[in-house]
């Protein structure tokens, strides 16, 4: 495959997407608050009782172990998607910018990637996540939040910033193609900003896309994603020659934030929305929703 003439930027979730397990859950369950209490805290997020940021601070605060001890547990527990490394090498070869976008902690994600991919290859991945202060003796793991909101990291804003940065590097008249890869409904704030959305098959993001007629491409491994991206690159080259907007362009990507404001929806919905409705309508303020079916909200569908 020859290098595409259009700038392509890929954003991928980390936990449950690149790696099949959740790094935070592995640490909390084995070295922190324990599985039972962690699940109780997760329920407090899902019910709306507490914010993601508040609960996350408690979870990370439950760790009192040196970073290296935590990494040893992660190294044994984590399994990388079998097609990821080949896909990432494909991105490097074709000048596709690859970003990890996560609500986790950058030092943890960086160390995991370096271990599984090697330092040189991992250096090509931009990690867009919260920073952290971890004391050498492990007595404190403190998140340094990327954004000052209830989630701590506004993934939608981060994708918008990535799009704007890519646009600056494009030739005059060219618009970059934005790809997002995820697995859960909490990925929606970032996914809505993409031109092409990949959702892991059988998980909540795919189910949600089906329920709400949101265009997406399902995948079982990153090998599937690579095949689809190759098709997308070929299609874009044949239809546009890399000029103007991409062949697969979501014109509403930057309109969702305005359209999903509280002022833009009916008063009865604003007054008594379910947790999942709130997640979809105001995703900047909510994390993983309860597993309920959400009514159609036509004005927020992706193009």
UniProtKB/TrEMBL annotation:
Q: Which NCBIfam families match?
A: DKMTPPase-SF, HAD-SF-IB
Key word Aminoacyl-tRNA synthetase present in the record? no
Gene Ontology molecular function terms on file: phosphatase activity
Keywords of the record, alphabetical order, are: Hydrolase
The record's annotation in Pfam families points to: HAD (PF12710)
What is the protein named?
A: 2,3-diketo-5-methylthio-1-phosphopentane phosphatase
Q: Where is the signal peptide?
A: none
Q: Does the keyword Transmembrane helix apply?
A: no
